[in-house]
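> @MW can you paste both from yesterday?
MW: sure, first one:
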Amino acid sequence: MSKRVILLPGDGIGPEIMAPALEVLRAVGADFEYEEHLFGGASIDAHGTAMTDETLAACRAADAVLLAAVGGPKWDTTDPSKPRPEQGLLGLRKGLGLFANLRPVKPLPALFDASPLRREVIEGTDLLVVRELTGGIYFGEKTRTADRASDACVYSRAEIDRIARVGFEAARGRKHLVTSVDKANVLETSRLWREVVRDLHGAEFSDLELENLLVDNAAMRLVAAPRDFDVIVTENMFGDILSDEAAMLTGSLGMLPSASLGDGSGPGVFEPVHGSAPDIAGRGIANPLAMFLSAALMLRHGFGMEEEALAVESAVDRVLADGLRTPDLGGDATTAQATRGVLTHL
């Protein structure tokens, strides 16, 4: 029986980069059954909610979910009673139990000069940020009065253990170094975090190297010596901030893929890190490469198709080495030209 993938093109440039991604998947022989659903702002317009129950049920029943981008000024609001496209993302992560977000950051030699950091600083950088996705301050109890507001940051031992496990297991297939990032000099949740990570390391992963870094130190080291990192594992808010900082090492947010995974019993969600770029939507100039790399992560983590994943990644590397640049990378190549280039290499 063929594998089923739910497609969520979303808003802005989303549909423009989803279609080429399917061409790339077909070119590497990924013979899946696809089903498309409205999501984000497009779903708000049609159904009054960023994600319908029917869409969530379809995602739960699928083998993987491929998501393009959501959001746009049309749906921006501070009114808590109005739906926002981003609610679809939070609802999807929660509904599918996706507690681990994986963001690989590996600046491509062809783009070294696009990075705000000097070539000699970023050369050799190949790191993976593993961010806890469903706990911490983003999901804690919130209060608000006219003069006071609070957000609770809560973590349980089990939540920390399972995300740390993802980080350690990833490092076994890489350079065998895990950097656990916390704020244990100030925060009680971070002290528990450090304790649980240390215990798990000693009990099951002592073949790996573990270092504990305070988040401010980690932020500085990411800029000063990014090649020193292998796997960074951290809580929700720190991971949100550090993964965006790490993303800029590559010179363009438009180049980065991500994977959100659960315990393996349900599908993962694979999506580019960039937003819906409503300012360039409909102009045919969106960079589809992060979408292609997200499809590669789906092949690798969703279906165990390592050879096909590598083929896509290498085709993206080669098209950039050939000199192709979309506008976000300082060139004038169109979405179609970028797609054709990758397909030619495949």
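MW: second:
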Amino acid sequence: MANNHDPRCRQCRREGDKLYLKGDKCYTHCTLDKTSKDNKNTKWRDKPPGMHGAPAFQKKITEYGQQLREKQKLRRIYRVLEGQFRNYLEEALRRPGVTGENLLQLLELRLDNVIYRLGLAASRAQARQMVTHRHFTVNGQRVNIPSYILKPGDVIGVHESMMKAGGIKEARDRVLKRSRIEWLDFNAQTLEGRVLSVPTRDQIDTRVREQLIIEFYSR
């Protein structure tokens, strides 16, 4: 959903869950954690946006609706268009193993996501922009494709011409606060990361029911 220009908090309200689209700001300034001052008895931020978000107009969500919402949630989190998402699903189906886990692994191994996981960007949106602006290298070569799929053993670094950039300076402080990702290795001194292995489902903290997504496309 790279071309979705709706306010980030509105997208989270639509899915009824934190999608962390603003990165670090979602931990400290999330509208889903606040209640409305206009109506003390109603947490309006917990309802979908729009005039039909009130409980009186809501209908019981169908099985199809649940599958659709899980699919849209995953697309919003990783900022992937529908066409791209279908390509990832087709690749996940071709690979051996559990299709849902394969899908999440492909999304996690995107270059923009790995940049975010390493702490070199505050959000996936910022990581996408920085990759497009050629801030990073993969195995010593500049890469400007956010959807570039990394493999175990690949080394991600900051290009020497970008070492003094404002976003990179902020990253030095940010990486010290981030918890360690088991399937990634990172050197805070050189700002260099390495993919140690393909992440397992237990190592992916994305809160989504991927099986519903597979069922959605199996119709």
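> thanks! The CA atoms of residues 36 and 53 lie 14 Å apart.
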